[in-house]
C-alpha cells in the first residue's frame, strides 16, 4: 500500500472541505483515520460538525478525538462523506470492504450530497481487478457462494486473524471475498450481486464517488 504521508495528505485535504453546521460521514480504514484526526483538531479549533461513523472503529476514533457524533438512524442525509477504498478506477468506481465495513459505508456514501474518496496511488487501477467483499447473512453463505460461482467468481469466507473462525461484521454477518478477476463491467456485476438473496451488501461502489483525492509524495491529485 501507499505511504502514511500520501494517505495523510489526501485525508487532510478532504477534511478541509467540511464546514461548520455540516454533518459528515466518517469512513473506515487507515486513510480516513487521518481525516478523522484532522476533523478532531478542527473541532478543537471551533468547527461545529456532527460525525456519522460507518463502523465501531470509526466511532471509537471519532469519540477519542472529540467529534460530536450522530448515529446513522438519526440522519436522513449527510452533507459530505469521506471514505477510503481498496481500489478505484478511472470512472471513480470503487472496490471497498477491506475493513468489512462496506454495508454502513455504502449507506452513508449514498446518503451524502458529496462523497469524497481518499486514497494513495497504490489503490488506483485502470480497471477494477481485486476481489469483491460481500457481507452475507451467516446462514446464506453456502447458497451465496454457489450464486457467486454461477457469476464466475471464486468465493472465500474471510477468516479472522485474532479469533478462531470467520470475521463477523459490526452487523453480525459474515464476509465472502469473491475473486472475479478483471471486472470489465462493474455496474452489471454490482446489479447481479445486489439481486442475490442473502447478500446484505457488496463492495462495488458504482457511480457513488463524486471525487477522489489521491495523495502523492508532493501533493494531492484530485479526480472528478
Ligand atoms: O473497508 C473499506 O472500504 C476501507 O475504506 C478500506 O478498505 C480502505 O482502507 P485503508 O484506507 O486502510 O486502505
From TrEMBL:
GO biological process: D-ribose metabolic process; pentose-phosphate shunt, non-oxidative branch
Enzyme class, broadest EC rank: isomerase
Record GO cellular component, one term: cytosol
Region described as Disordered: 1-16
GO terms of molecular function: ribose-5-phosphate isomerase activity
Alphabetical list of Pfam families matching this protein: Rib_5-P_isom_A (PF06026)
Family: Belongs to the ribose 5-phosphate isomerase family.
PANTHER family registered for this protein in UniProt: RIBOSE-5-PHOSPHATE ISOMERASE (PTHR11934:SF0)
Known partners and oligomeric status: Homodimer. Homotetramer.
Record-given protein name: Ribose-5-phosphate isomerase A
Gene name in the database record: rpiA
